[in-house]
Design a protein that fits this description.
With about 300 residues, this protein is an alpha/beta fold. The protein contains 14 helices and 12 strands. The chain is about 35% helix and about 15% strand.
């Protein structure tokens, strides 16, 4: 009997024709997806008989897992597994796999690209030129600013290393001790979070989404920041409290924001962020790279076949 699997990962769906031959022996269901499926969608998708899934940021909750009585493996395309109830899945004997170092290079390059676009006023100057204007816009260099990194895992530490090409003024914070982070070399200076918030001109988020980081950046933390601070988020949308971000963009406390991720995705068309010309917005797309996509496609398929 042919084993039945589901592919809901949007990036793999985009390039399915290149990779479908690797799963010829399976009965494959590919429900069209824009960004992610919510719990009610997944209840209709992960039904009895499905043995494996390659998913994106779909909401695979306890309720979904309970219904998926034949499920053997959940393969997350990419890195973050905060949308999956991993503990409950594993208690049911379901394996949960991902690719932890999948997108270090594209995400770190995008993060620094957002910083440079804002600090050097590249996006703003470009828009003015297209409007027929010729203005000498005041810009800064990374060299003269302090960059603060919250979350010093694989991506945060790589951002710190890359920033050393631009500035010596890098500080970082992580809730884990150095011995648990276990990096071979540390770039920048470790400081307590209140100090980082107080001295950083740019704050970039690189922490996992978990109970300790949910809405980590809310009004109480924003009020500790410098006036006109630049906020970058290429981690998870819910690390920021979006209503508080909007409030302080309007007040000017937050000078600029470079955001790739949002609490609701796709970002609603009527979101204030879409109308704020001090925001550079991306469509949860900093992982974009043919080379890195290929690696994750192949690794995800390999992991699924190990269990199904």
């Amino acid at each position: 009997m042919t084993k039945k699997i589901v592919v809901t990962a949007p990036y793999l769906q985009l390039e399915w024709e290149k990779y479908k031959h690797l799963l010829d022996d399976y009965d494959i269901i590919i429900p069209p997806v824009t960004e992610r499926f919510e719990e009610e969608d997944m209840l209709q998708i992960l039904t009895p008989g499905i043995e494996g899934i390659i998913c994106g940021d779909d909401r695979i909750t306890e309720k979904v897992i309970d219904k998926a009585t034949d499920l053997k493996v959940i393969v997350k395309w990419g890195t973050g597994i905060d949308s999956i109830n991993r503990k409950f899945a594993e208690s049911k004997g379901i394996h949960v796999r991902n690719t932890p170092d999948a997108f270090i290079t594209p995400v770190t390059e995008s993060t620094i690209g957002l910083m440079l676009s804002i600090v050097r006023r590249i996006d703003e100057n470009n828009r003015k030129m297209h409007e027929g204007k010729w203005e000498k816009i005041r810009a800064f260099t990374l060299f003269e600013l302090t960059a603060g990194i919250i979350g010093y895992g694989l991506i945060g530490s790589a951002v710190a290393e890359k920033l050393t090409a631009f500035t010596n003024n890098v500080v970082w914070h992580d809730i884990k001790p150095d011995e648990e982070l276990n990096h071979s070399k540390y770039f920048g200076k470790r400081v307590p979070l209140p100090e980082l918030l107080a001295i950083s001109d740019i704050i970039t988020l690189h922490c996992d989404l978990n109970p300790t980081s949910h809405h980590l950046i809310a009004e109480d933390k924003i009020l500790q920041m410098k006036d006109g601070v630049i906020l970058i988020n290429t981690a998870r949308g819910a690390v920021l409290n979006e209503p508080d971000i909007e409030k302080h963009l309007k007040s000017g406390k937050i000078g600029y924001a470079g955001l790739d991720v949002f609490e609701r995705e796709p970002l609603p068309e009527n979101s204030f962020l879409r109308s704020c010309d001090r925001c550079i917005l991306l469509s949860h797309n900093t992982n974009s790279s043919p080379l890195h996509w290929k690696r994750v496609h192949l690794n995800s398929i390999k992991m699924l076949k190990e269990y199904v």
